[in-house]
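Hey, I was hoping to borrow your eyes for a little while. I've been staring at a protein lately and its backbone has me curious. You're getting the sequence in one-letter code plus the fold written as tokens. Would you mind checking whether the tokens look sensible for this chain? Here's the protein in full, and shout if anything looks odd to you:
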Amino acid sequence: MTEERSEYLTESQRARLEAELAELEGPRRAKVVRAIRTAREHGDLSENFEYHAAKNEQGLLEARIRTLRARLLDAATIDESEMVQGAIAAGSIVELELEAGERMEIEISSVAGPRTVSPESPLGRALAGRRAGDEVAVQAPGGAWRAWIRSVRRD
């Protein structure tokens, strides 16, 4: 039976997640532990804002670490050499021209970041397998719209 993966990552996307995880588990975790230790030294914890803020930050940090670990464990790495050259897939950086003439550059990625679009989103699904020069129709919750693919590349 083939194992179904919830997410597909290119090697560079996996490396970015691994780097973030290393930063969070190392320097960031140590910083939070120091902040909690320092806040404890100020006495009464029930009214100690610094202590509660540091504990809250620790909770958020540990939640992000668990999320990253789970994503890396469950994700499959895409062999980019097997991908069709010039076709849009996870890891592609796409320049689009919208109907109004505005241009935008996005990366097809499950890794959240600025200017990223999930492969499972309406735009990600509309772009999958397309090439530079193609016109795409996007059926989004906010309404349908069109765009033209101006370029496709990989980092």
